[in-house]
Amino acid sequence: MPSEAALEALPKVFRLADETPYVLVSSIAAILCAAPDRINEVLLLSVDCEVRQKQSDGSEAYGLRWWPAKGADPMVKWIVPSMVDVVVDAIAKIRKRTDHARNVARWYEENPNQVYLSTEFEYLRGQEYLKNIEVGRVLFGKDVDRSIINLWYRNKNIKTATIGGVRCYRFVDIERNVLSMLPLHAPWLNKDLGLKYSDALFTVCRNDLAADKATWPGVVATVSINQVNNRLGPKTGSHHETIFSRYGFTEPDGSPIKVTTHQFRHYLNTLAQAGGLSQLDVAKWSGRKDIRENATYDHVSADELVLKIRGALGDDSQMFGPLANLPKRIVIHRDEFARLKVPTAHTTEFGVCIHDYTMAPCQLHADCLNCSEQVCVKGDEVRSARIRDELVTARENLEAAKQAHADGYFGASRWVDHHELTVKRLAQLCALLDDPSIPHGAVIQLSNLPVPSRIEQAKVARAALTHRPEPSPSAIISTETMRNLMLAMEKNDG
């Protein structure tokens, strides 16, 4: 995820940026900090992507209309109120810096076989030959040094003529070369989405994001993912100036700040997970079709898990199970009890384990579903689905154990007891997860069933050995039968 130094520097860069490359990239970063977009989705926003909608309470909701990249339906992604002003400012900055390029794209839609010229230099269109200075006006929209024109000319197959002792270039040759630089599929930026360059928010002029190259005002392009990443933190060995280095921001140790566009998505997803947003809502907010993909973006730390569970102790609206009532019955402050009862926490396949491994190893060999130190969080759809699948499997295992016990298999009764307990706990847990009266984000702990110590477990195992039941007749193979089977096998081998 983004470093603390990066998150502190970004708002400052956003306010300081005054050149097109840094304005565009810092504004993109602002959008990525407000909604968990993928960078390719941001770069496909239309110029009219903003949506405002009146709410029932009279307030106004603000969002961006966008196309998800991995198959989800087109949607409006609403921006949290605290970030609305930032995103509005970012969109305005981007739109201002890219208006000219969209106008050029619109001009080419109406004049696909002619080179764009500014009104100031439109008079050049009627000339057959152009001098160096005039070529610069066609290519770069301004007077440029002769060396730039000569450098460009050497890489092109353009015939020249000498008129009055001056080298000149044919206008049609210059025009043909400029038109060849336009995007291959223009006027469409993305035909499947119906998005033209003239309607795209991130339509720019060629080299707008290059600090060491002249901009081509008559050639449209779009901002690329590499251009954004290079300004956020280029690969080792690259000499691109970042939005951080441009304004003197570094990590505390003086090293360069580096961020990738996808880290913002991980950051916002983690904030949503830590805040108790349901997995379904996290998936919808992030534009996912499958809520199972949320797990990849869940970076909630152990400390955050501990604080969440501690905060729920003793709260009837947030904690369900034995831990909800204990703080009410003891002569100790609730917060102090919470620190003693839940010193640590870590995620498991089905929820969160609050066992303190500094005191003792796991005595159930990771049999989390039969452990009183396992708690679940309602709204975690990924782990809830695993719990429901486990209930189906546990019921099947219970039937198989009962059949084995009926057939007289030694030890089968212990498996029957184990699976009965597992089914009971899973059914109880699923009932709580499906209970509409329990809010999303609530912490659930099942009945405080005693966890036997290792000595008790050993005593039970020894008792089973000393009271070994007689096998049923159907489970006994006589010596005579065994001898006949062995003779038949030897005969077949021979």
TrEMBL record:
InterPro entries: DNA_brk_join_enz, Integrase-like_cat_sf
Keywords: DNA recombination
Tree of life domain: Bacteria
SUPFAM superfamilies per the UniProt record, alphabetical: DNA breaking-rejoining enzymes
Protein name: Integrase
Native species: Alcaligenes ammonioxydans
